Amino acid sequence: MSGGCGHTIDKLSDSEDERSRIGSPAKKVISCSIEDVRDENDEKIVLKLRQELLNKHSLPPRHDDYHMLLRFLKTMDFNIDKTVTAWEEMLKWRNEFGADQIIQDFNFNELDQVTMYYPQGYHGVDKNGRPIYIERLGKAHPGKLMDVTTIDRYLKYHVQEFEKALQQKLPACSIAAKRRVTTTTTILDADGLGMKNFSPAAANLLSSIAKVDCSYYPETLHRMFIVNAGFGFRSLIWPAAQKFLDPVTIAKIQVLEPKSLSKLLETIDSSQLPDFLGGVCTCANEGGCLRSNKGPWNDPEIAELVHHMEVNPIPQTTKAPLHVRDHDSQEPAQGEWSQPQLLNTSSENSSSTYTSRREVSYCSDTGKDITVSMSQIHP
């Protein structure tokens, strides 16, 4: 049977099923293929950074990830020394903050009350499969928010949600889209926003969040839309808010006037957009769109694939372009990413591209074979 999120589930035929009852129980095979497009030059500098971190014993296995390394390189303009410093500061912060265990260890009991006074949450994906994060700034009440939580606790919740996005939502979106998804789309709804929504506590909270996001989770934002932005927001609030943001982030933000919501439909399908943002979704049975957590990460089959990817990580792979490969190269050095075999390419592929694939199969305790294959396409 065909899965609805870009993966397939294949069951044994009836005759195979009969035979399986004699020997071993029937197995359901869950598989997915994720395309990973990489730039040649990016790969070279990522490998250089990786070796530098390995030499300094600053690359824990759980963070030995090509795309994570690339994010830090981008935010430091590909300067190796600056990236190493930023990376080591990130590792120190994660250790002190407890970020590696925060999904399991932190319980944000006040979430329902917090979302009443600061409506926000993930809802759907854009047309490129990126998860959409939405905040209704005009409906935020900082004073009441601080009555039900604290800045420290909200910051822990924010980091926990970031970790869930990186570990659960982005992998799920990658499986659904059949290609690597590494960034998110954010919508900030400024309808009704005014000075009443700001306070010293709100400013401290925003400043703390901005520091964490920019320093420890760089280059995770693809695009941000600030919608329903009236004259007051554009002339007073937005100029002040930019002081908390770095230039790279500011360049990704598009401020839309109240009559420009249709712009969202250029990048987001109406079925994935709440009705208050010009879409058709209401999530009526879920208590509203921002309480629904709608997205491919809620698909049980995709969630199982993500779980097995976490428990049994797919080995990192890299390969030099065909025209510069050394066919007499020796075995990879200790700690080097494994070298997959080159696939036979179809006639559709030109000589200027090549594909490397690494396929890993898992068998769960429930008797399901989990197969995840990663294709890396190099321009």
Write structural notes for this entry.
- It is a single chain.
- The chain is an alpha/beta fold and 379 residues long.
- It contains 13 helices and nine strands.
- It has a five-stranded mixed β-sheet with strand order 3-4-5-6-7. A four-stranded mixed β-sheet has the order 1-2-9-8.
- A hairpin with a 5-residue loop joins β3 and β4.
- The radius of gyration is 23 Å and the shape is globular.
- The N terminus is likely disordered.
Q: Roughly what is the average pLDDT, rounded to an integer? A: 79
Helix content: 25-40%
Given as residue ranges, the uncertain stretches (5+ residues, pLDDT < 50) are 1-27, 314-370
Count of alpha/pi helices:
13
Beta percentage is 15-25%
The major pleated sheet works out as:
5 strands, mixed
Number of strands: 9
Shape: globular
| H and E order | EHEHHHHHEEHHEHEHHEHHEE
Can you list the strand order of the major beta sheet?
A: 3-4-5-6-7
Radius of gyration computed on alpha carbons: 23 Å
Task: Describe the structure concisely for a colleague.
By secondary structure, the chain is of the alpha/beta class. It has helices at 14-22, 40-55, 66-75, 80-97, 102-105, 111-117, 142-148, 151-177, 200-216, 231-241, 247-251, 289-292, 300-311; strands at 8-10, 29-37, 120-125, 131-136, 184-189, 221-227, 253-255, 354-363, 369-378.
Descriptive key words:
single chain; 379 residues; alpha/beta; 5-stranded mixed beta sheet; 4-stranded mixed beta sheet; 13 helices
